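PT: before anyone asks, these are the final sequences, not the draft ones from last week. 605 residues across everything. Please model them as a single complex and drop the result in this thread when it's through.
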Amino acid sequence: MTSNDQVLLPAGLADLLPPDAEREEAASRAVVDVFRSHGYESVRPPLLEFEDSLTAGLGAAGAGSTFRLMDPHSQRMLGVRADITPQIARIASTRLAAAVRPLRLCYAGDVLRVNASANRGERQVRQIGAELIGCPGADADVEILLLTIEALGTLGIEYFTIDLTCPNLVPAVMESSALGPELQTELEDALRRKNVSALRSLSGDGPRILAELAAAAGPVEEAETRLRSIDLPDRAAAVRERTFDVLGRLRSFVPEIALTLDPVENRGFGYYAGVGFAVFAPGARREIAFGGRYRISPDETAFGVSFFTDSLLRVAAGPAPARRVLVSRTEDPAVAAALRRDGWIAIVDLLGSGDSETARRARCTHVLRDGTPVPLAPDPG
Amino acid sequence: MNRDRSDDIVLAVPRGRIAREVVPLLADIGIEPEPAFRDPDSRRLSFRTSVDGLSLIRVRSFDAATFVAFGGADLGVVGYDVLLEFDYDDLYLPLDLGIGRCRLAVAEPAAVASSDDPRRWSHVRIATKYPATTRRHFAARGVQAECVKLNGSLELAPQLGLCRRIVDLVDTGSTLRANGLVEVEKIADISSRLVVNRTAMKLRPRHLNALVDRFREVIDGASD
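LR: through. Structure below.
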C-alpha cells in the first residue's frame, strides 16, 4: 500500500490529519454545545436513504448533487445525503409530528456532494445545524440568528457579516407581473448575477421592479431605505415587512453586528421560503453558515441554520493549545488519571527514557517529576 | 484568500485588446495607474493607482475571471466570452462596460459553406478556445460537438485539416476573410463586463458599490 496510486483519493476527498481533524471535531462540538444550551436536542439521521425519499420535498433542491448507489438488499436506488436539513424536516413532519411544538433539534454529521465546484473543492464536509420547528413568528427567526452569532463567538470568529435575504420576494414579484417562462428564466439568471445592465434593458413593470430590487442590495442602512421606497405588489410587500421586522429586532439586540441586506440573493436558498441569511467572513471564499425559513409540510414551517466546516475552519480560531504531560510508565496510573481529570493530556512514556527530548518529540509541554508536571525548558535547538 | 479586510481593493485588468479600452475608461472614472502600468517593458504585475486603497493587477484575459472568482481580486474587467466559458458561480456581473465589442461565432471555409446546410448537422468537430461554450451551444440544437482546444491561430485549423469549423471571436471579420473563412452562425454578442466577487461584495459593500456606481455613471454618461 505504498505506491502512489494507492494513496491517491478521489477528487474532493481528503484524509484529515492531526491537528486538522481535532480542529474540526472541536469546532463541531463547540457549536453543538451552544445549540444544546438553548434546548436543542440531538438527532442523528442515517447517511443513506432511499433515493426517492431523500430527493422528495426539500431534498429536491439537492437532487443534482446527490451520490447514488444500488442497494443489493432491496434492489432500490439509495442516495447519500448532500444536506441534512431535509432529513430533519422529514423527521419533524413524520416520526416527531406529534412532538410538542416548538420543536428544537440539532445535529452534526458529514454530507457528500457529487459536484465539487471549482470554488468549493471538498466533496465531503461536516454540516452542523439547528432547526426550530413549528413556530412561525419573527421571534423564532431572531432566536436562530442570535444562536448563530453566539456560535460564531464561541468559535473565535471576530469579524463577520450577516447578509439577510428574502428568497420569496422575487417569486412574489414575478407572480404578480405574469411573466412568460422564457422571460422569467432570463430574469432569474440576471438576478443571480446581479446583472443590473441586463435587467434595465428589459421593459415592463416586473423587470423594472426587479432591477430596483437588485440595485437596493448593500449595507443594511442604505439598503433598507432603498427597499422601502420601491413600490411592491401586496404579497411582495408582506415579505418585505417581515424582513424589516426581523431586521429591527436583530439590530436592537445586537447593534454591533455588521449586516447587509440583499433582496434578490437566491444562491443556496433552493428551499427557503421566508427570511434567509448567510454569514460571510474574511478569509473564507464562501459563506461559512446559512439558514432561513422553509416549509416542512403544508401547514408547518421551520427556521434553521447550517454551518459547513470546509469554509468554517478557514476562519475559526483553533482550540486553545493543550497542556500535554509525559508520565513515566512506572508511575501509578491513578496519578495520570488525576491529571486528566484536571484537564491535562497525560501521555505514558512507552519508550521509557523519560528525558526532555522524548517529551519534546511526543509534543509534550511538561514532564511529570515527583508527581508534579514540570514545564519543559525551551528547545535548545 | 487570506487577505485582510483592511487590504487594498484589487481590480483585475486583462492585457491586450481590452486593456487599450480600459485605461481611458479608468481615467474617466478618476483612476490613474502608476506610470509602470503603461510601460510595455515593465515586468511588474501589480500596480498602485491614484485612488488610495485601490490597486490593479494585470493578467491574461482568461485569468481575470478566475482571479476574481477565487477572491484573489475583488473585481475585474472580463470579456463575456470568458464568463460564458467558465460560468463561475461566485461572480456578480453588475455592469456591461460596452467595450471590447465583438461576437462569438462559428466559421468555416467559404468552399464548405457554399454547399453546407447547418440544419443537417448531427456531429461536428470544431477547433476553439471555448470548448464548454461550443459544446453547450451545439447541444442546445441537438448537435454533438467534438472540440479541439487551441489557444490561438485558430484560422489555420481548417486549412491544415484539423477540422472544418472553428468557433472564435469575430470583430470585423477581416482575419476570417484573410484565411478564406466565412461566418456561418453567431453564438453570442460579446462585450466586457465589470465583475465583482460575491463574498467581497458582502464583506465590503460600501467600497465596492461606490466603485461600481462610478463605473456606471461614466458608462451611462458615455451612452447618452
